[in-house]
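Notes from hallway chat w/ T.B., transcribed later so I don't forget. T.B. wanted the structure written out for a chain they're using in a teaching module, and asked if we could keep both sequence and structure tokens in one place. Agreed to drop them here.
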Amino acid sequence: MDAEASTSWPEVSSSGTPSTGHADTALCTWYNIFMRDIFGGLVVVVGLIGNGLTIVIMGRDRRKSSTIRMLFYLAIVDSLILIVYGIIAMPTPLLKLQDLYVEASNHQVISITVLSYVGQTLNQISVLFTLIVTWQRYVSICIPLKAKMYTSPHNTNKMAVTAIVFAVIFYLPNFFHNSFITDPTGKLQPIAEPLAENFIYQVIYSISLLYLFSYVGPIVGLIVMGTTLLQNIRDSFKKKTTMKAKEELTLSLVGVILIFIICQSISPLRRILMWVYAPYHIALQCENALFFFGPIYLISFLVNSAANFIIYILFARGFRRKVFKFIRWNHQVDPAQPTGQSWTFTQNNTCDTASTGTSFGQP
């Protein structure tokens, strides 16, 4: 969600420098491979599996709760973010390792000038969805008499659609910042369009409005509402020793907010470093001041989009039970049916149809 468009092409190169590549030491090469391909790839795989399970479990219960409906939508968007930023982060080090420097450079150009804006659009949708689901919990707890009106399925869907439309329109100008030419070596070279170099446009849109809507506004809102939700949990816990499903869901949401704030704070930190260590693309090169910071920007998006499932598993017992039931369901074959043709729920005396259909949280 960073305002990459407010800088010229060389400074934009945050996901790795345009590939001169030959000067990288073994440490630099393997650090990039570890961070982007091994660790980043692991986060992508774990995140896609976790979000897939979340989509399945919450998809079944999305009509029971507006909060679960929004978390279901959030899991879909987070999966798309993992795919896009995985494509941005992972191929370049492997291409360089095989001495495919032209291909690595072209991949970086496309990633930074096109794919990064797709990722930022999806990230903006994720930001707005997180804000919406937090607001719904806040209304349900602090203004319960109006919860039915504000968190109805119809209003929830309208807010989700509005968030998507806003994010697409808001980030659309970024796709017109560059055109491309191919140099004699076969490398793509981006050419900045006049719009991207306009100072007033940069100050108003690429810095002020972008950070207001993508970071400052959402973070302030999430901190205020998250603090209130956490206080409500503390008050409830003082009155009883165990938490109900609603309180577990609220605690999970507080965890989502905390991870969100930490991961999204990397973007403005990166912007500050771009000003301090100008030219930024030089500082990112091997053995220079910000080399080890370079991949963290992309990894922060991956971690933020992969972490929610782990939070639900840790704090929401009902969700955890449903995940384990689903896993057992898909690994035990009904002995009455031929192998591979039918799957059945593993049940015991305490797992009746009522418990199977119970949502892990209500609004």
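Follow-up for T.B.: Confidence is low (pLDDT under 50) at residues 1-22, 333-359. Might be a good example for the class.
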